[in-house]
Amino acid sequence: MRSAMTKRAASVGLFALGIGLCTSGAQAQLDVVWSQWPYVTQTGAPSITTSTRTMKTADDFLLASGNGQAWNVWRIRATVLSLIGSSLSNYRVEVYSDAGAGPGSLIHTQLATNASDFGQSEGMRVFDLNFDMNLSLAGGTKYWVSVFGTTGITPQVMWAPSQSQTVNLSGSLFRDSAYGGAWGALQGFGGAPRDMSMQVSAIQAVPGPAAAVVGGLGMLAAGARRRRVG
User: Fold this and answer.
1) Backbone angles phi, psi at 212, to 5 degrees
2) DSSP string, 65-96
3) Same domain, 94 and 172
4) What does the pLDDT look like over 82-131, one tens digit per residue?
5) Same domain (yes/no): 18, 63
6) Which range of residues forms the domain containing residue 21?
7) Which residues does residue 125 pair with via DSSP β-bridges, in sequence order?
C-alpha cells in the first residue's frame, strides 16, 4: 500500500514539475501593441536623404507595463509615399530612447524586410513597409521611431500620416541635420503635427508558476523519503 502511495506521489510530483517547466517559458499571444492606422494617402511628412543633408520625421509610441517583463518587438510597420521604388535597401527604420521632448539615443536601426506596393497616390507610389526584428524593450516606457529613405537623391520619401488621433503622445517631430540636428514640431500638412502611420507588434514573456515547480519538487522529495522509510 505504501509503495503504491509513493509511486502516486512521485507521479503527481513529476506531472506538476513538468507543467511548471513547460509554462515557465510561455509567451503571450503575438499582438499589435501600438497602432496608428489607417494611413492618409493624400499627404506625407518629408523624410529625405540627400548627399548633403538628412531630414527625418519621428513619432513616439508607448509600451504598456504588462506583467513587468520586457517586450520583444518583432515588427514595426509603416506606410510611405515614395518615388524611389520598392527595393528594401531604399528604406530604413530607427528606434530611439525617449529624451522627454523628443528622441534620445539611437537603440536600433535596420533596412526594411519586405515592402508591398499599394498603388499610386499624388503621383507617388504607396509602399507598406515591414521591419521585422528581434528587439527587447522595457515595458511602461516611451520610445521614438523614424522611417526614412536611404538613397542620396531628391525626390523624396514621405512617411504617411495616420488617420488615427486617439493614441497621440507627442505628435510627430522633424529634424534637418543641416540646421543643427535638433528635433522640432512638424507643422503644415493640415496644421498641428499628426501621428504617423505606424504599428508596433511585440510579445511579452509570461512568468511561470513557480509554485507549481516548487510543489512538484516537494512531492518528489516526499515520495523519496517514504521509499527510504519503507
Assistant:
1) -65, -40
2) -TTSSPEEEEEEEEEEEESS-S-GGGEEEEEE
3) yes
4) 988 899 999 999 999 999 888 999 999 999 999 999 998 878 899 999 99
5) no
6) 2-25+209-229
7) 82, 120
